[in-house]
Amino acid sequence: MPQPDRWIAHLDMDAFYASVELLRYPQLKGEAVVIGGRRADAPRQREDGSWQYARLRDYTGRGVVTTSTYAARDLGVFSAMGLMKAALRAPDAILLPADFDSYRKYSRLFKAAVAEVAPVIEDRGIDEIYIDLTDVPGVRDAVGHDPLGGVKAVAREIKNSVWRATGLTCSIGITPNKLLSKIASELDKPDGITVLTLADIPARIWPLAVRKINGIGPKAGDRLVKLGLQTVGDIAAADPRWLIEQFGESYGHWLHNAAHGRDSRPIVTHSEPVSISRETTFERDLHAVHDKALLGGIMDELCERLAQDLARKRYAGKTVGIKLRFEGFVTVTRDQTLKTPILTAADIRHAAGLCLKRVKFDKRLRLMGVRIGNLVHASEVPPAVPAAERAKAPERENLSLF
DNA sequence: TCTGGGGTCCTAGGACCC
DNA sequence: TCTGGGGTCCTAGGACCC
């Protein structure tokens, strides 16, 4: 049987945020625990040494579930679910606030541990990565006699390295490409290793629901099911011309290829950010006129934080955009490209003010955000005009809506 | 008792230029 | 003076992912 030209791994940390919390609160192992909510109370220890936790049933507000332990998932509580809805399903579940500094720390630790075994890594966020194993010695040397054995041994080595560095488990899928590996890493979760070749596609991939493919989301998934295609195998068996008629040239082709397990995307070890943003959902919907001062202050703060992000990462940007979400969840964006890159909070605020003027405020607002794109490295930005001169600019004041 | 926050990529129309 | 065809940039919205 011909061997694949690449061995690509997808590594996914098991219930990552929840598992990091369990390192801190090991007494919660096996409990239904939910991470989420902006102001959930942290656990506190009573005088007698016992712990007191916030419970899901006591939560009020607009938060969503960020992660849940496997025990909570058994009760029907999943990521992105509204906390109020989750509370109906698991009122007694323990609610912990998210601690992103801690998660980022463990993220760096596990990625460094993987890099010691296999250095060609593509970052896919805080809790998952792709790894090119093709040239890792234990894999390369096994080509010809026992390729699958070599791949599995390296996978075990990676898992051990992650465990030693963090005390956390992960699941790994290894196949000839990213698309299949992403699916494979979920087939034996938690703490599993799944190795597949192209020959395994009919038996292992085709029975899966279409939504298991990374790139088929809620909308496309619904449409496929309505068209009678429930499984990946159903897509694979469909006439590609018909798929193109239904989904367009680009997505139709992609669906056909994906269902057959074809994907030639490379591992990307370095990338530059495209945009940076900050947004916030309000506790209650706000009125553009009645809450004008409050909204103005929130916009000031978002621009301030965005400017700090830019400074920390040493970028400036030419395009400033705002995002508004109204009651009813209707989202509107406006953006504006400037002649030169900017990076200060005042410049961002000014551009955001111009964008705000182009929006009709006929409903209450639930979210406001600011984004900066068209990024350049800060070193490429021409020297700033001195603040004293800028203050003279006539249009500086009274331009913004809020 | 709906629906966070930070991203990427794609599409499609219009402006503008050659 | 009744109408082409690219290419690129900008803008708005939307799908999708972690």
From TrEMBL:
Residues the record marks as active site: 128
Keywords of the record: Cytoplasm, DNA damage, DNA repair, DNA replication, DNA-binding, DNA-directed DNA polymerase, Magnesium, Metal-binding, Mutator protein, Nucleotidyltransferase, Transferase
Record domain UmuC: where: 8-217
Bound cofactor: record note: Binds 2 magnesium ions per subunit.
Pfam families: IMS (PF00817), IMS_C (PF11799), IMS_HHH (PF11798)
Ligand binding (Mg(2+)): 12, 127
Reaction equation(s) it catalyzes: DNA(n) + a 2'-deoxyribonucleoside 5'-triphosphate = DNA(n+1) + diphosphate
Needed co-factor(s): Mg(2+)
Feature type site, description Substrate discrimination: 17
Top EC group: transferase
Example of a GO MF term: DNA-directed DNA polymerase activity
Subcellular location: Cytoplasm
Entry's EC annotation: 2.7.7.7
Major location category of this protein: cytoplasm
NCBIfam families, alphabetized: PRK02406.1
Family: Belongs to the DNA polymerase type-Y family.
Protein role: Poorly processive, error-prone DNA polymerase involved in untargeted mutagenesis. Copies undamaged DNA at stalled replication forks, which arise in vivo from mismatched or misaligned primer ends. These misaligned primers can be extended by PolIV. Exhibits no 3'-5' exonuclease (proofreading) activity. May be involved in translesional synthesis, in conjunction with the beta clamp from PolIII.
Subunit structure: Monomer.
Designated name of the protein: DNA polymerase IV
